[in-house]
């Protein structure tokens, strides 16, 4: 059974979707949820779904506390699902090609520091883009610059608000993220 660890900073809807997708799969299991926010809603979701969680601060992410926890957890895949901090190089080096992220835009557009969540959707609408989407990519030492694994797009209508775009992007994440994780785990022997 493959082991997945999820990092999230917010509501955790993608984390919950991944946890429930793999619960009875026989392929993988989410063994832990880690967050940098003690009031993140993902903690409630993890508790309800009986997945252990760990809360840490930015300093603990960059010293060895989180790395040591990951070494004990022995994940086959680390999934960033709405995790807002830059991932430390020492963790990336310890788990090469084992860390993925979902980004709410079609990279390389609208990536980089500060480009997350509604910031992305507002920029897409402000720039009158006719499409947006999601990018699932490997994590490297730079924000949103790792090798692209998968992209899916959606139409942005001229009357769409950023909330409309956010809803379309969320639907793509819910549909595709667990399936791409499954594909990665199935090809990783």
Automatic annotation (TrEMBL):
Function per UniProt: Catalyzes the transfer of a formyl group from 10-formyltetrahydrofolate to 5-phospho-ribosyl-glycinamide (GAR), producing 5-phospho-ribosyl-N-formylglycinamide (FGAR) and tetrahydrofolate.
Residues holding N(1)-(5-phospho-beta-D-ribosyl)glycinamide: 12-14
Lineage, highest ranks first: Bacteria, Pseudomonadati, Bacteroidota, Flavobacteriia, Flavobacteriales
Family the entry assigns: Belongs to the GART family.
Enzyme Commission number(s): 2.1.2.2
Catalytic site positions: 103 (proton donor)
Class of this enzyme: transferase
Catalytic reaction(s) noted: N(1)-(5-phospho-beta-D-ribosyl)glycinamide + (6R)-10-formyltetrahydrofolate = N(2)-formyl-N(1)-(5-phospho-beta-D-ribosyl)glycinamide + (6S)-5,6,7,8-tetrahydrofolate + H(+)
Source organism per UniProt: Pseudofulvibacter geojedonensis
GO molecular function annotation: phosphoribosylglycinamide formyltransferase activity
Protein known as: Phosphoribosylglycinamide formyltransferase
Superkingdom, taxonomy of origin: Bacteria
């Amino acid at each position: 059974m493959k082991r997945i660890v999820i990092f999230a900073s917010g509501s955790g809807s993608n984390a919950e979707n991944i946890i429930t997708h793999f619960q009875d799969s026989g392929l993988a299991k989410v063994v832990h949820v880690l967050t940098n926010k003690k009031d993140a809603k993902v903690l409630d979701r993890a508790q309800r779904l009986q997945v252990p969680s760990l809360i840490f601060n930015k300093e603990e992410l960059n010293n060895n506390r989180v790395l040591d926890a990951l070494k004990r957890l022995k994940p086959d895949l680390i999934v960033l699902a709405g995790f807002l901090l830059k991932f430390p190089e020492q963790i990336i080096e310890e788990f090469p090609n084992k860390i993925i992220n979902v980004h709410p835009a079609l990279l390389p557009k609208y990536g980089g520091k500060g480009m997350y969540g509604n910031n992305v959707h507002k920029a897409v609408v402000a720039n009158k883009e006719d499409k947006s989407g999601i990018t699932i990519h490997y994590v490297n030492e730079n924000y949103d610059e790792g090798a692209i694994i998968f992209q899916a797009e959606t139409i942005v209508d001229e009357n769409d608000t950023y909330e409309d775009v956010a809803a379309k992007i969320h639907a793509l994440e819910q549909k595709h993220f667990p399936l791409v994780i499954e594909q990665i785990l199935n090809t990783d022997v």
